[in-house]
Amino acid sequence: RTGGLNGQHAAYEETKNIAANSYISVQVFEQFERLNLFTSLTDNTARFHTQQFAFLPSLAFLSHLTALPILQDSGTKLQLGSDTDMLLYNRLKDSQPLLKETMRLSRMKKPLPELD
């Protein structure tokens, strides 16, 4: 979005400043078991053989990959490019309850308690 209160929205394929974008369109992939392979045919879309996309506010987008992912089968499968990326994914996935609790506490108006 361009600057200002009434800035115009436009699509960009790349940007140098992620915070300058209102929303980021991402394709949703779902993990196969505990492998480093993901599929674009998620449980929600498998019946219709369609792909799922999401619009994330730029502040909610978290990206940290050490290697480019590898696309397979015309883009319906994605494989993480390094073991480090899979380790990071698993740590974030395992930390999901703590992240949810942190987000819940951040919406409170009183002082926050210390988390372990």
What does it look like?
The chain is an alpha+beta fold. Helices cover 20% and strands 20% of the residues. It is built from two helices and six strands; from the N terminus they run E-E-E-E-E-E-H-H. The strands form two sheets. The chain has a four-stranded antiparallel sheet, with no helix packed on it. The chain starts with 22 loop residues before the first strand and ends in a 10-residue tail after the last helix. The mean pLDDT is 79.
Largest sheet: 4 strands, antiparallel
Q: Structural class per helix/strand content?
A: alpha+beta
DSSP strand content: 15-25%
Major sheet: arrangement of strands: 2-3-6-5
Radius of gyration: 17 Å
Q: Distance between the terminal alpha carbons, to the nearest Å?
A: 39 Å
What proportion of the residues is helical, as a percent range? 10-25%
Number of strands: 6
**Sequence of secondary-structure elements:** EEEEEEHH
Regions with little confidence, pLDDT below 50 for 5+ residues: none
Give the helix tally: 2
Shape: globular
Average pLDDT works out at 79
